[in-house]
């Protein structure tokens, strides 16, 4: 199924005395978020923070495995499945064998902050549980339907979605120092068993990046109607690359900073 375009992002860097952001579709008048918007914003912020936590956990697990000389497979034949346990966050490296059957190559248990170092178990004597297997299938289903990866290294995060389905997020990872990748940013809604793509959307299909020494980022979002809000990946970016991001949606200007969304006047 083709990815549905939600926005096209034109990135303008604001620094020092740069001119004010251009108007988009209507005058950008400051106003407080409505009660309905505030409720939706809380859900968007929670999802964005969850994406960030999983991405950070995967990076910590990657470092722990690299310290033991364990190679990370290419994304299309292996990846991370993350499970929250009472004793901490378990980050499992799944790898496919020659018959395309996934198994757990390593588990990395990340204790709560201040509770110890990562615990690495290679070739654990366990099979993936039902939830892990469904998450991995959902990941592979999303990858099979992703056309806009720009040939770059990319990360994946799988979160519980609507009606017991899975939301799979794909986003580029920076492979160069001091470069912030801003697209493509994709979300896939996948069935509960992980085998069927229900829908997909591209928050940004363009291959966009910026230098991290730029002071502030303004993203003009086309094809968003009046009243639409920032999305979880906006929150994720604001946490991953701590910069204020301003998003123009319809006649509204939003500031996304440190994982929080709030209205902002022009």
Sum this structure up briefly.
With 266 residues, the protein is an alpha+beta fold.
> Largest sheet, described in full?
5 strands, mixed
The tally of beta strands, per DSSP, is 16
- Work out the radius of gyration: 19 Å
Helical proportion, percent range: 10-25%
Cα separation of the termini: 38 Å
Order of helical and strand elements: EEHEEEEHEEEEEEEHEEE
Uncertain stretches of 5 or more adjacent residues: 1-26, 222-226
How much of the sequence is in beta strands?
Answer: 35-45%
| SS-based class | alpha+beta
Strand order of the largest sheet: 1-11-10-8-7
pLDDT average, as an integer? 80
Number of continuous helical runs = 3
The outline comes out as globular
Number of domains: 1
Organism: Dokdonella fugitiva
Keywords: Signal
Protein name: Lipoprotein
Signal peptide: 1-20
List the helices and strands and how they pair.
Blueprint: E1 4-5, E2 8-14, H1 35-67, E3 78-85, E4 88-96, E5 102-110, E6 119-122, H2 130-144, E7 154-160, E8 166-172, E9 179-181, E10 185-190, E11 197-204, E12 209-211, E13 216-222, H3 232-240, E14 245-249, E15 252-257, E16 260-263
Parallel strand pairs: 1-11, 13-14
Antiparallel strand pairs: 2-13, 3-4, 4-5, 5-6, 7-8, 8-10, 9-12, 10-11, 14-15, 15-16
